[in-house]
């Protein structure tokens, strides 16, 4: 390598004129030789790369042919793979009606648990949203404030406590039998665990939050019961069996007579009544109410 570089360098130096050669110092000569050596080394490396590529190309071609032939000899059952089913991409946008209904039920479940266990004042919208795993924007898209949420909780509790076919309670039998059946159903609903917990919350926080009492007073469950009992009493008054001037007032007083004492005792103001005691209480209350309404004959 060194002899070849020396020959090339001398060959190049022969073309330099004598005048210029006389001006070249040993340092310049050394720099010229280094430049020539770098150029020659670069040319040799390029030639080696080209030669290697030309030699390697037939080898790569042979390997490719071998792989292709081997793949063609594989049976079709092995060579073909089952295609993966493409799942539909998840799309954004508004949820379906079923998803929206499930989300509303989840929000009400969380709100009912928080309000009945921790109280209305302590329960915040942030706590409901956090436990329900929703954003506050999602919450406000359904309820404008906490009072409206409480109204939805009360409404759902009342609707779940109502019998599925409550109209059948007022069909068939005498007025005494109808009122006794109704009193027993009302007692079961009023003395349930959720109804008692809700009543405790209202008693404890109605002074600070007047909207609670308003929500309860506007519940149609109690109003519908008063309306049906009043209609029953109205028909009995037209038939001449009882004497009443205000059937709606009498119906409201009948509900109060049925629920008041058993509810107080279940809230801790006395010993709770047993099921047999509640049945007797319903019968005695109906008897007392009707005896006060019946026509007295001399």
Features of the shown structure:
3 domains, 72% helix, mainly alpha, Arc Repressor Mutant, subunit A, 0% strand, 298 residues, 14 helices
Question: Quick one: CATH superfamily of the largest domain?
Answer: Tetracycline Repressor, domain 2
Roughly what percent helix?
over 70%
CATH topology of the largest domain: Tetracycline Repressor, domain 2
Given helix and strand content, the structural type is mainly alpha
Q: Would you state the CATH class of the largest domain?
A: Mainly Alpha
| Basic shape | rod-shaped
Percent in strands: under 5%
Computed over alpha carbons, the radius of gyration is 48 Å
Low-confidence stretches: none
Task: Please state the average pLDDT score.
Answer: 77
In total, how many domains does the architecture comprise?
3
**Amino-to-carboxy terminus distance:** 148 Å
Sequence of secondary-structure elements: HHHHHHHHHHHHHH
Helical element count?
A: 14
Main beta sheet, described?
Answer: none
CATH-scheme architecture of the largest domain: Orthogonal Bundle
Counted beta strands:
0
């Amino acid at each position: 390598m060194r002899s070849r570089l020396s020959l090339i360098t001398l060959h190049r130096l022969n073309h330099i004129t004598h005048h210029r050669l006389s001006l070249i110092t040993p340092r310049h000569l050394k720099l010229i030789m280094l430049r020539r050596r770098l150029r020659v080394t670069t040319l040799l490396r390029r030639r080696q790369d080209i030669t290697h590529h030309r030699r390697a190309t037939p080898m790569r071609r042979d390997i490719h042919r071998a792989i292709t032939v081997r793949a063609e000899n594989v049976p079709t059952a092995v060579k073909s793979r089952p295609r993966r089913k493409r799942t539909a991409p998840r799309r954004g946008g508004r949820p379906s009606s079923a998803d929206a209904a499930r989300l509303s039920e989840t929000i009400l479940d969380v709100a009912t648990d928080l309000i009945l266990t921790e109280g209305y004042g302590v329960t915040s919208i942030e706590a409901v949203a956090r436990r329900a795993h929703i954003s506050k924007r999602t919450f406000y898209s359904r309820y404008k404030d906490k009072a409206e949420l409480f109204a939805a909780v009360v409404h759902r509790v009342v609707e779940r406590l109502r019998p599925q076919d409550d109209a059948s309670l007022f069909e068939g039998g005498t007025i005494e039998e109808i009122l006794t059946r109704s009193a027993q159903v009302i007692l079961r609903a009023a003395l349930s665990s959720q109804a008692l917990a809700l009543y405790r919350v209202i008693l404890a926080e109605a002074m600070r939050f007047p909207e609670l009492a308003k929500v309860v007073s506007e519940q149609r469950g109690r109003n519908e019961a008063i309306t049906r009992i009043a209609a029953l009493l109205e028909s009995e008054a037209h038939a001449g069996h009882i004497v009443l001037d205000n059937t709606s007032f009498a119906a409201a007083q009948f509900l109060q007579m049925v629920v008041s004492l058993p509810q107080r005792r279940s809230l801790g103001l006395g010993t709770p009544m047993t099921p047999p005691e509640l049945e007797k209480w319903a019968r005695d209350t109906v008897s007392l109410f009707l005896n006060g309404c019946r026509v007295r004959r001399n």
